[in-house]
Amino acid sequence: MIRAATTNWEFQRHPLLPNGHLQTFAGVYLPRIEDPYQATQYKIPLADGDHLVVHEDLPANWTAKHPNVLLIHGLAGSYRSTYMCRMTDRLLKANYGVFRLDMRGCGAGEGLARYSTHCDRWEDAAAALEFIAGRHPQSATSLVGYSMGGAIGLNLLAQTGSTRIGNLERTLAICPPIDLFDIERRFDKPLGRPYDRFFVRMLWQQIVNRWRQFPELAPKIIPRRRPRRLRQIDELVTVPLGGYSEVDNYYQTAAPGPKLASIKQPATILASADDPIVPSGPLTAYPCSPEVKTVVTPSGGHLGFIARRTADPDRRWLDWRVLDWLQHG
Question: Cα–Cα distance between 161 and 163 in angstroms, integer?
Answer without folding.
Answer: 6
